[in-house]
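We close this part of the discussion by returning to an individual protein. The sequence in question and its structure tokens are set out directly beneath this paragraph:
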Amino acid sequence: MKEPIDILKKYNKIPEIYRYTFWCTFFVGMLTHLYILTNKLPTFDDMLCLNSFGGSFNLGRWFLGILGLVKYKILGNYSMPMLNGMLAILLIAVFACLVNAVLRNDNILAGMLIGIMLVVFPTIAGNLSFMFTGYYYSIAMVLLGAGVLLISQGKKVWMFIAGSFLLTLSLAIYQAYYPLGIGLFLIILILDCAGGKESFQELLKKAFRYLGGLLLGLLFYFPINGFWLKVMHIEMGSHKGVDHMSQVSLQELPGKIILTYQAFSKMLFQNYYGITGNIWIRLAVILLLAGVLFLLGRRSIRLITEKKYMICILLWVFILLFPIGIHSIYIMVEEQYLYTLMIYADVLLFIFPLVLCEKFIVYEKAERKTAGTAARITGILNWLVTLMVLFSGIFYIYQDNAAYLEAELSLSAAKSYYTTLITQIKSLDGYREDMEVVLIGDNQDSTIYEIRREFFQDVEIGGIYETDRVIKGIDRGRFMKYYCGYDQELTEDISGIRQEDWQSMPDYPEDGSIKIVEDRIVVKFSGE
């Protein structure tokens, strides 16, 4: 039996870049998200999933269902901020190491910055607001990273098949991470083309290998999904358009591809799902992309002078495919269903420039261009990219915490609002605790203060709690039960109450908007 010291010796054999990346990602992640880890800041879904893992088999997330059911039988699936959140961040740290391995990055500073961006990106803040399932999504990231690594670097056929199946499992937890895998493959191909060491045929063979891995992952996914739908005797739900994920026609495809480029341009000029809500972060993205285009343009000239025309063409094909790849979620689902959690692949816009600069420095050293104008320009760009990524990381840390502040204030406001409502219900003449409370209509109370007015638009992160989401009608009953301790029977069913008895009532919070009708307490928020 091995002693603890033997395990420590094995740890010391792990390359430094992975050790530094892992711990940097974990500690920065813990500090960034400490606010939500030490407070209960629920989303509207959390009201439904206090001891649940959310939608699974009916949303095509059959592996999430399997994992969730196993854990539920053993420990339950409680939405616990510290434990669930810490596990999610730990898994993201593992994913950061896998991304470095996939991109063959051996620069420690770049590795740590990659990890920082992966864990502070607004998508992660959104994930953690779904605390009951966020760590499962982190498992999907690890499976994706491991799958891409096996497909891209595995030497055996079984590694290729295993990697594809890992992509399948990732899809079967959360489908929206699939574009992240596509983006990673495209970055590898762009870097290999820019290196100029492989022949056109070798690069083309790689491209088809990666495409084959992605398609095989889908080929595994859909039949297994159909199997579980039959086993569970259910049909695919329509949540976020997941039931149409594989139903894009050839006629629709050109329009969908145009949407991917439009999404790419939106990041540069407007708030894109909370990712680029501030002019400074948009400027950082523009500078990073400008650096990428400059370096790749310069490399293209070198490929042309070396008469590697086909490789140069292939390089630009992959560059043009990159926006489509990272925004392929627009091909998978309809645009109206998208929000911050579904665009994690955009984090590659910060990672790609970092790795590209580091690779160019390596290329130039190998070509004995360690001095001269070209090397100085690459060095300056490397500093610029490093500073821009560092700035972006700090910006997102600030943004995540501002969003958590908004969530806490919104939660406090909702608690206060419903505590007042409960007090008014209990103060009615003739009130009894066995009476059913009937909530009619959606809340249109103009006295509700929306705390978002105090925040810049860059704080808008999909999934983060907003005041009006619960107060104005999203699962009011569970909110009053879990956060106000109110367990009186609530319903929105108005059958059995004559229309004339409630329609003349004023809307809440006006006097007379709560009254007892036919031995039931009626709260009229608005007319139907």
In short: Residues 373-426 form the longest helix (54 residues). Residues 13-405 form one domain.
